[in-house]
């Protein structure tokens, strides 16, 4: 069981490390979009796509960078008490609170799946069966949802990125849960 947990930790941490290291350069993409927005508004006709594309880029940056942030321990914590605790007490507290985070992420993931199904033209009540039907050919994509802005981009790509980010965050939280269990058992991670 311990070797299975350690294998899961190694695999998930490696995946999120690689994705996080790539996504962290998304800030430069965002800067490029915002610089182009400033230049086009000053010297040319303003670009319609820049503000919304900057928002989409920032969402991808935060959502896909979140698991990497948790892995590094750079997420926000209330260190008023936590910082002074022993490693064992921190592991117990993290073990307890990670269950709340996993529940919250499951709710967010289901909401992201529902929202993505809606953006692909599904108006039913079971988005999981819709995606299963897309794979097996039992469902078809309907009228695609678009933004209400003047640019009117399709919304399913960014919503799909949100699903991926929430799923990776969930996997990383399970990895952190396993790390806490191993710490409590005195195992080296």
From TrEMBL:
The lineage of its organism: Bacteria, Pseudomonadati, Pseudomonadota, Alphaproteobacteria, Rhodobacterales. The complex comprises the extracytoplasmic solute receptor protein and the two transmembrane proteins. The keyword Cell inner membrane applies. Keywords: Cell inner membrane, Cell membrane, Membrane, Transmembrane, Transmembrane helix, Transport. This is TRAP transporter small permease protein. It comes from Amylibacter marinus. Residues 30-181 form the Tripartite ATP-independent periplasmic transporters DctQ component domain. The chain crosses the membrane at residues 21-39, 51-70, 91-113, 154-178. It comes from the Bacteria. It holds the Pfam family DctQ. Its main location: membrane. It is a multi-pass membrane protein. Part of the tripartite ATP-independent periplasmic (TRAP) transport system. The keyword Protein biosynthesis does not apply. Belongs to the TRAP transporter small permease family. It is found in: Cell inner membrane.
